[in-house]
Amino acid sequence: MLEIVMGAERQKCLAENDSDIWLRAIDINGVMVGRKYKRTDEAEAREMAAKYWCKPGFLYVELFSVYEGKLCVLYHGYRTY
After folding, report:
1. Which neighbouring-strand residues pair with 71?
2. N or C terminus: fewer CB in 10 A for the chain?
3. What pTM did the predictor assign?
4. 20/41 Cα distance (integer angstroms)
């Protein structure tokens, strides 16, 4: 189920093709947190993704963007409890 939800977010990113970096994190209750970063803030976005991954209760964390028309996953974390 989580992969389906994250897949839909990836498709939205591809459709917008705005070159922003998208951070999405889903917690154990199914609540998704989302942020967008400018491409120039990639280091900050990666740091925030790592912080979400280290927080207890987050099952899925992903950071992605569109580069040259293709989706690129910059950070990916998935766990099961």
Report:
1. 66
2. C
3. 0.88
4. 9
